[in-house]
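User: For my dataset I need records formatted as: sequence, then structure tokens, nothing else. Please produce one.
Assistant:
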Amino acid sequence: MEPSNENRGRLLDTLRELGFTSEELEPLESADFTQPQIVRLEEGVDILTRIHFRLNYMECRKRAKAFVMPGGQTIYFLHINDLRETKVLARRTKDLNDIVMIDEIIEEVKKQGNSLD
């Protein structure tokens, strides 16, 4: 998500609608989303406002795939190459398996003669 405090407010509203409690959301209430943040919520949800200084939100957004929900909301999914790069740059142990799976998907797509764009 774009790192802004306005988006922090939107995220909080969304998480409340999804049933997260005030106690679970407490770490987000005072977080400055204009600065790099990593907040872990219950149920294994990580909120990251920046993965790495080499990744620019707007550049990744341009390559992202839009998906329009039945209610009209648009959700943007990172391009698979950007997703892979976030996993590499994050250098978190839990991302290593994801990198292997992403590489397998990329290889399979290439074998089928399809484009990743």
